[in-house]
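Regression test case RT-17, inverse folding.

Input:
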């Protein structure tokens, strides 16, 4: 279970296959149609559907569903304040890297179900195959920073600094922006679960 936790509350959950787990980090595969859950208001609206000032005064619930985007590979470097995602187009071909800035993931394992809990810091970086890059979701990031008592990002400068650090890695064509895993194809026998397993919503460890 790859989970985003905000102030000790689950924001979203994505079921994933473990592709690789070694000293470099954890590599996950999110298949099209994978079971997921997302925090919504009682009316069923997500955080992006309203101003942040309205969101923080709402009541919430977790709504289960399916991953409706293209398949995505996610690499969580050990101890890093970011993860790198390989996005695909509708045909499954590599489209771009996506640097998700986040507090380092904390692992948990309950036996029948296991996962990682991180805190998404909202600001992201898109890196194109030709290594051009751009910030993403800056407007949302700035909007939420205006509510320091409610926002889960305490240090804007630290988030931007981590983004700039990863940008330099990309510009240098260093791993993981060196073509590694761009042609990854999951085994044909990997099916998609019918739903999230019992224990997917266990209390956060972060």
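Golden output:
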């Amino acid at each position: 279970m790859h989970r985003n936790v905000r102030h000790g509350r689950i924001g979203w959950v994505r079921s994933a296959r473990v592709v690789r787990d070694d000293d470099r980090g954890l590599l996950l595969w999110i298949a099209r149609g994978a079971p997921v859950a997302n925090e919504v208001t009682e009316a069923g609206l997500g955080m992006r559907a309203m101003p942040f000032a309205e969101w923080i005064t709402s009541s919430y619930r977790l709504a289960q569903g399916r991953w409706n985007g293209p398949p995505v590979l996610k690499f969580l470097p050990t101890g890093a304040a970011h993860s790198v995602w390989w996005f695909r187009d509708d045909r499954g071909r590599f489209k771009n890297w996506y640097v998700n800035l986040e507090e380092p993931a904390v692992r948990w394992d309950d036996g029948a179900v296991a996962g990682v809990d991180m805190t998404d810091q909202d600001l992201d970086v898109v890196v194109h195959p030709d290594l051009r890059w751009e910030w993403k979701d800056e407007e949302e990031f700035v909007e939420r920073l205006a509510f320091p008592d409610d926002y889960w990002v305490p240090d804007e400068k630290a988030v931007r600094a981590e983004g700039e650090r990863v940008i330099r890695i990309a510009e240098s064509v260093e791993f993981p922006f060196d073509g590694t895993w761009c042609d990854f194809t999951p085994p044909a026998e990997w099916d998609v679960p019918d739903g999230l397993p019992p224990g997917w919503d266990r209390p956060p460890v972060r």
